[in-house]
């Protein structure tokens, strides 16, 4: 079984200057600046050695579209060499490289021509994918996109992410476009022999029995719609929390409910079992983690969720792997560096890595499940 961690480029690389996010961080539209961050772009070899010492055998990372295509249609071969070097280092360390091709950020020039709002812009992303294939990606698994519903809803409903719009019509269009783009890329990658999927954010919705139709509708929108509209070889599950459906839809009853969401380890098992029943495809947990400064709680969270995942496996669900979010404390979008998801910390001045006890807890999971 694959046991490892996940990250995304803008959150860990540092100085990701060609993106829409960097632009809006710089002009103040976004509250927090990512800056140099944990500088994994320069320090990836050191980070891979930490992964190796921890006995981890998988790492999900993002190949940064915005670095590789800094100008419309122009491929930066130096940046492709960088990611090929990262992949080679992982393979040499016995760590399965699992690249994601797109995780929220757009090149600023693509943002200026309306990004994924327009299907005619797909050609740029396809050219990026073709360039990666021509260079030869020494990987088995590829994730095309990350959390399409989350991106579309935060960018086109809640106005938290660029382009900060509020339109259900645009939300629906962009979501459909991203899913269609995934299918195009899936076919290209599949023809080259890769095992392909995307990472979907799954939420377990709970409510009183009378609201069962509401929970089913929410489940369809957030969980099942992306799966139904796409082609994939395995189910990539990002799971963090269970949602109180009453509070989510703004019911007056919500006033008696303390929280919109809560942590429920059984949710990871239920989702894995349900998705396998629906699609008969193996499951990979592509993200699962918790924001906490109490690392003993992170260890508890990790062990409880992994235990539930193993119950799903015993119940017949083929589990490819468990990737914890995140390898390192990083830039958490509209929360800046005020979130702590990593099993590794870092000094913001020296960038020195600080190995937390939870890293050794994940190491124990890796040791026990290496041959399963």
Automatic annotation (TrEMBL):
Family matches, as InterPro entries: GH, Glyco_hydro_1
Any GO MF annotation of the entry: beta-glucosidase activity
Pfam families in the record: Glyco_hydro_1 (PF00232)
GO BP annotation list: carbohydrate catabolic process
Gene3D superfamilies: Glycosidases
Keywords: Glycosidase, Hydrolase
Membrane-spanning parts: none
One annotated Gene Ontology cellular component of this protein: cytosol
Similarity section: Belongs to the glycosyl hydrolase 1 family.
Record-given protein name: Glycoside hydrolase family 1
Lineage: Archaea, Candidatus Parvarchaeota, Candidatus Parvarchaeum
């Amino acid at each position: 079984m694959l046991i490892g961690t996940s990250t995304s480029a803008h959150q860990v690389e540092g100085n990701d200057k060609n993106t829409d996010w960097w632009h809006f961080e710089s002009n103040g539209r976004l509250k927090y600046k990512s800056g140099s961050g944990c500088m994994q772009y320069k320090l990836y070899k050191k980070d891979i050695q930490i992964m190796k010492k921890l006995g981890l055998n998988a790492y999900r990372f993002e190949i940064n579209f915005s670095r590789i295509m800094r100008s419309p249609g122009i491929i930066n071969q130096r940046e492709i060499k960088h990611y090929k070097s990262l992949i080679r280092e992982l393979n040499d360390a016995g760590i399965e490289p699992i690249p994601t091709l797109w995780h929220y950020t757009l090149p600023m020039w693509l943002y200026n021509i309306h990004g994924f709002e327009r299907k005619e812009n797909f050609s740029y992303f396809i050219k990026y994918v073709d360039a990666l294939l021509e260079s030869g990606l020494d990987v088995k698994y590829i994730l095309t996109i990350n959390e399409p519903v989350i991106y579309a809803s935060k960018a086109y409903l809640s106005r938290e992410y660029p382009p900060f719009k509020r339109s259900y019509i645009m939300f629906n269009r962009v979501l459909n476009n991203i899913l269609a783009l995934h299918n195009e890329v899936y076919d290209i990658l599949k023809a080259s022999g890769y095992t392909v999927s995307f990472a979907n954010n799954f939420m377990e919705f709970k409510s009183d029995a009378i609201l069962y139709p509401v929970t089913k509708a929410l489940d369809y929108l957030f969980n099942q719609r992306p799966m139904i509209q796409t082609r994939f070889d395995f189910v990539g599950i990002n799971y963090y929390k269970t949602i109180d459906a009453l509070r989510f839809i703004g019911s007056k009853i919500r006033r008696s409910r303390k929280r919109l969401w809560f942590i429920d380890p059984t949710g990871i098992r239920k989702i894995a079992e349900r998705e396998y029943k629906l699609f008969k495809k193996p499951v990979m947990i592509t993200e699962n983690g918790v924001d906490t400064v109490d690392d003993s709680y992170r260890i508890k969270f990790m062990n409880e969720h992994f235990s539930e995942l193993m119950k799903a496996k015993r119940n017949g669900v083929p589990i490819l792997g468990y990737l914890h979010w995140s390898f390192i404390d990083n830039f958490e979008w509209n929360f800046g560096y005020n979130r702590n998801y990593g099993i590794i910390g870092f000094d913001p001045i020296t960038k020195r890595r600080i190995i937390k006890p939870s890293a050794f807890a994940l190491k124990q999971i890796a040791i026990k499940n290496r041959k399963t």
